[in-house]
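fyi for ur records
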Amino acid sequence: MNRLGLILVALSAVPLSALCQAGGLPSLALDPVVQGPERPTGIHAAGDGSGRLFLMSKNGRIEIFDGTALLPQPFLDIDARVNSSGVERGLHGLAFDPDYAVNGFFYVVYTNLASDSIISRFSVTADPDIADPNSETILLEIDQPDQYHNVSQLQFGSDGYLYIGAGDGGFIGDPDNRAQNLGELLGKILRIDVSAAPPYSIPPDNPFVGVPGAQPEIWAYGVRNPWRFSFDRVTGDMYMGDVGQWSWEEVNFQPGDSSGGENYGWRLMEGAHCYNPSTGCEQPDLVMPILEFSHSTGCAVTGGYVYRGERFPRLDGTYYYSDWCSGRVWGARQESGVWVNNELLDTTLAPTTFGENDDGELFLADDDNGTIYRLIDPEPFCDLRMSQPDYSGAETVTMETLRLVNLGGAGAAGRLQLFLVTPGGGIPLLDVGGDGSLVLGPGTDFGTSPIPLFAANAVPAGSYAVACRLSNAGTGATYYFDANPFTVLAD
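which gave:
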């Protein structure tokens, strides 16, 4: 009888419900990565596989962090063209073309010397770390009536179109009601096609194409100051932080299959509360925020991203956002159709922006000193990956790697258990560290070489998984449970 057969005969199945950790949002920590530029406003990846982070600053410079240090020469310096005076003017948006690796195009939004918002395209030079400042092609210029609530964000969607976050232009309370006026570009999320000849074309399925008096660029409306929106790279859902007036900060949501046209309520509403008018503002077409917090907690929301990296599997699917005034960082995600929202950190930072690298890892920038932080899972965990999704015949079911990670500040004595997950439960494969001998010191990040387990034809065809459970050797409390599925095919 083979090894797996002996295990199956000798051991009874373990109920998987006894192995899993309790639910709830995972812990979070910030790991300083690099001292970035002064007044950082953006953290971006080019999508070219280089692993570089492009760090944007309010004063009109974009610098490159290559993974070890900031490069001595900026990628782009247009300081002479940028009005960065006041709180809300400056270089605020950067987006790399989906075909950047081929065409070298990227797009920025900044406040020009006339205090208007400029959306331009630039090109990289033959040196991948240097852009050509003379390659600017202006695509769109939007008059700004005030120094506040400028055009502040660019982001490509999975549809290849460029989305633009345009604030209402200020001043207090959107006095000209621009956010509700479809004849104005301000107070909107815009959507344009930059793949056509400059300046741009209008996507034919934009919701207000052909509507008399409406600007065809409009994708959604009723926003005040959309400071950082992002798309979930798995679902295409949009999350948008919208800075409030006197009382409420909000996060809005647009599903990935939306056809656009949402009205997020400003200035009728601030968050989920009437603003102007102060009562009786409700309308059936208004889209309410999924999250909000009052000014007793903070004063200026900074929208973030959904974590979709592979390094910290426990964080997967959680949306992270923060407040510039209080330094708080929250996590939120849907569980059984309900948004679960927890404050995870109360820091002394002034978070101006989040960013995402090519691998889906997330970063945060501090406005006070320019430091760039990586979002990490500080609790110990195990992470295993199978070598392939399907096995058959005499192929060896193989665990490609098993990682043991503890990036928190304290060491931990862990017990590691591996199980073959079958329809009947978990069959133990490995159990080490129960005596306290498996010590995971601070900063542990260890990965194994491939581990062969058994031949596929040793078990009946069907769905299986290999699971790891990492627990506290003393208390037995589960740190993490991870199951990686695979299929054994019939011969």
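The radius of gyration is 25 Å. thats all i got for now
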